[in-house]
Structures are given as structure tokens and as C-alpha cells.
């Protein structure tokens, strides 16, 4: 399939699922850009803040709404990025359950691209999640809009503000701990 300006685009979304997953139906969704990483690096702050939530059996689902220059990656390229991130987390004791990646540029108006809620709905479908008891931590207004459209409790964070960031994950933890799903 050829997208704008002849850019080759992927089947969408590119989905990775862990073989061993918690039986719970509750997820913590995190946006890759601005929540899990900045400047291409996975943040130590993310690793430390997410640990308790994952240890309690909540499924960690990573969402990537691609920003330039990642737009228009081939499936294999997106998959390589996914595996690199998942491996990095696993080495630090954090088991991700799923990673969903929309590589389309904004001009494609893909239903998976924020502010559309397609990635959240795809994740809910493949993992049989209960969105109403799940939480999405995003980093942009477009993330917030996608979460609200999907009916997920949505929180915005600023990775540059470590105190706000940790408090937001604590809020997410409390909301998820109250769920018996
Ligand atoms: Zn897409």
C-alpha cells in the first residue's frame, strides 16, 4: 500500500503480544513518546514508577502513536523497535503484555492515530480488556482525547516534572487497585 508522498505504510496497528500474560482484564496503557521515553531513551523514572502496578497483575500495554521520523515504518522496522523496548523493560524486571504501534502520519487520518481511539479499542479486543476499569497515561492532548473517546480513565503526565510524574502513577495505581477485574 502506498501512502502520501509514496511513503510505504504498514498494516495497522502493528501488534505484539506477550505469550505469558496476567489473567486480569485491567490494563495500564502508557504512551511510548513522552511517558515511557524521551529522546529515544526509555526513562528510569518510568521503570521505577510502573513496577508496583505490573507486579500486582495489571497488564502493561504500550501504545505508540508515531511521530516523525518514525511515520511510515515497515512492519518489520516497527516490530524491531517494539522488541527492543520490550527486551529493555524485561531486563529490568518489567513484563509488558502488549505493544500496539500506529506508524501512520497524521495526514493518513488512520483510525488508530490519536485523537482517534483505535489503538485502545484494538488492545481491548485482542486482550479482552475492560476499558472502564483501565487507565491510560498519556503525554499530549491528542492522547487525552483518544482515552476519553475510549471510555478509559486518562491521566496526562509531564516527564520533565518528576514529582508530578510519580504522583500520576500513584493515582493510576490507586485507581487500578480498586478494580477486581
Ligand atoms: Zn495507523
- Counted by DSSP, the helix tally is 6
The dominant shape is: globular
Helix content: 25-40%
What is the oligomer described by this structure? single chain
CATH class label: Alpha Beta
* Strands, total number: 8
In spatial order, strands of the major sheet run: 1-6-5-2-7-8
* Separation of the first and last Cα atoms: 40 Å
Count of structural domains: 1
Q: Which ligands does the model contain, each kind named once? A: zinc ion
Radius of gyration: 15 Å
By helix and strand content, what is the structural category?
alpha/beta
| Rounded average pLDDT | 90
Q: CATH H-level name... which superfamily?
A: HAD superfamily/HAD-like
Task: Outline the low-pLDDT stretches.
Answer: none
Proportion of residues in extended strands:
15-25%
> What is the CATH topology?
Rossmann fold
CATH architecture label name: 3-Layer(aba) Sandwich
Order of helices and strands: EEHEEHEHEHEHEH
Largest sheet: 6 strands, mixed
Question: Explain this structure to me?
Answer:
By secondary structure, the chain is of the alpha/beta class. It has a single domain (4-177), classed as HAD superfamily/HAD-like (Rossmann fold). It is 39% helix and 18% strand. The protein has 6 helices and 8 strands. The chain has helices spanning 32-36, 44-55, 75-91, 118-127, 141-150, 162-177, and strands at 14-17, 27-31, 37-38, 41-42, 59-65, 98-102, 135-138, 153-156. The strands form 2 sheets. The protein has a 6-stranded mixed β-sheet with strand order 1-6-5-2-7-8, sandwiched between helices. It has a two-stranded antiparallel ribbon with strand order 3-4. Helix 2 runs parallel beside helix 6 (162-177). The longest helix is centred in the middle third of the chain and has 17 residues, at 75-91. The protein is globular. The termini are far apart. The relative contact order is 0.21. The mean pLDDT is 90. The structure holds zinc ion (ZN). Zinc ion (ZN) binds next to loops.
Amino acid at each position: 500500500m502506498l501512502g502520501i508522498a509514496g511513503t510505504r505504510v504498514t498494516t495497522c496497528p502493528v501488534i505484539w503480544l506477550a505469550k505469558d500474560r496476567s489473567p486480569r482484564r485491567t490494563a495500564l496503557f502508557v504512551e511510548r513518546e513522552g511517558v515511557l521515553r524521551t529522546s529515544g531513551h526509555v526513562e528510569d523514572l518510568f521503570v521505577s514508577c510502573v513496577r508496583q502496578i505490573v507486579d500486582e497483575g495489571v497488564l502493561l500495554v504500550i501504545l505508540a502513536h508515531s511521530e516523525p521520523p518514525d511515520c511510515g515504518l515497515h512492519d518489520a522496522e516497527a516490530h524491531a523497535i517494539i522488541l527492543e523496548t520490550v527486551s529493555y523493560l524485561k531486563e529490568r524486571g518489567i513484563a509488558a503484555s502488549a505493544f500496539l504501534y500506529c506508524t501512520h502520519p497524521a495526514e493518513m487520518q488512520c483510525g488508530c492515530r490519536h485523537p482517534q481511539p483505535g489503538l485502545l479499542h484494538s488492545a481491548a479486543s485482542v486482550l479482552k480488556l475492560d476499558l472502564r476499569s483501565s487507565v491510560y497515561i498519556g503525554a499530549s492532548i491528542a492522547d487525552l482525547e483518544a482515552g476519553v473517546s475510549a471510555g478509559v480513565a486518562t491521566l496526562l503526565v509531564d516527564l520533565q516534572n518528576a514529582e508530578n510524574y510519580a504522583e500520576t502513577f500513584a493515582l493510576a495505581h490507586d485507581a487500578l487497585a480498586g478494580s477486581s477485574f
